[in-house]
Amino acid sequence: FMQEKIAITPETKCLETIVITLLTVIIIMAKKDMFFETRHVGRLLEYSNKQ
Predict the structure, then answer these.
(1) Which residues of 6-41 are buried (b: 16+ CB within 10 A; e: fewer)?
(2) pTM of the model as a whole
(3) What pLDDT digit, counting tens, does each position of 23-50 carry?
């Protein structure tokens, strides 16, 4: 980001972090299948649990 080139206060950095975190959570919740599905792993999970 451009934080080094412009003078940003700690409060602004905190607000930026909160906004980015909220946007990330919204994206993850909207695309749950993409982030949490296990179908692409196949039988790998069963294999790793047996060992």
Answers:
(1) eeeeeeeeeeeeeeeeeeeeeeeeeeeeeeeeeeee
(2) 0.58
(3) 999 999 998 888 777 776 667 666 666 6
